[in-house]
């Protein structure tokens, strides 16, 4: 059979599948075949409404012959039953069903809008893939490890059985200290995974089908990550954490998960935060939520620190030294000690490029605070007041 013949048979077959589904006569195998074969190109052809309308207009204009008179002249008697006059009605009904089936199927196809990536962020995404000498110094920070997903990894999350089973077949990416990773998910969502973090996600998100028109895009997070989510009018994006779910509505946000709580900061768009056992709470841009196993707290915060982090900087605004060093020590893998309790509360403001050496950060802090720092043999830094 030539290509033209095969194409015609394929079209006939898929139209038949549409009809059988609408009439409720399709078997499970036929429904699966319909979902697999009805790609956008084929649907566009079926739904070429101008072509369909023109063909029906031409058909409707054809004068049906007076078959009864012709039959009587030929055979000398009248024929009782004639079905030709009803064929036009049957064709019209079939045409309407075909258009309706195709339109319904076409309506299931998701409309995905890629996230807007600022010019400040683009170089860092590209840097992860570069190997030229100028980028090598910074690109060494972008590394991750892939390992199989096991039941003990997903056990702490309160997942339904179907999601848990899907996650066992998913990708599992983790970073160590002093490393981070940029990844683009199947739908175009961009994730900036922080150091010491893990994300579990399917290689391909489920697509809408006739019997599941609104599947959920689901990922698991342990640690910190910045999300720039692709908006999808059919498929909600959900991040599962140990303390609850973050439900995205086309958004840019940061999540930080710890053993005792999960923090969500909304940079733009809209998200819902749903602790386990509680109803969903919507956040507005500029709001931060902290949820644990018992409740959720909302507050308005400056988002510049989160934006700065996404572009390779540490940003601190009148922050106690203890908090500043808590962030930096996690990144650089160092230990921090204080010669006195009062030193912990010394406040610091400013920006620092986290891809530079830790010694550069220490020098900047010493210059800003007047404190002194001693480094021990076990990679511990001790802050103390300068003797005058």
Protein described:
- The protein has about 400 residues and is α+β, with helices and mostly antiparallel strands.
- It has 3 domains: about 5-110, no CATH class; about 110-305, Sandwich (Jelly Rolls), CATH 2.60.120; about 310-385, 3-Layer(bab) Sandwich (Phage tail protein beta-alpha-beta fold).
- The protein has 14 helices and 22 strands.
- The protein has helices at about 5-20, 30-35, 40-45, 50-60, 65-75, 85-110, 120-125, 135-140, 150-155, 160-165, 305-310, 320-330, 340-345, 360-370, and strands at about 110-115, 145, 170-175, 180-185, 190-195, 200, 215-220, 225-230, 230, 235-240, 245-250, 250-255, 260-270, 270-275, 280-285, 285-290, 295-300, 315-320, 335-340, 345-355, 370-375, 380-385.
- The strands form 5 sheets. It has an 8-stranded mixed β-sheet with strand order 2-3-6-7-10-11-14-15, with no helix packed on it. Strands 4-5-8-12-13-16-17 form a 7-stranded antiparallel β-sheet, with helices on one face.
- The longest helix has 25 residues, at about 85-110.
- It is elongated and about 120 Å long.
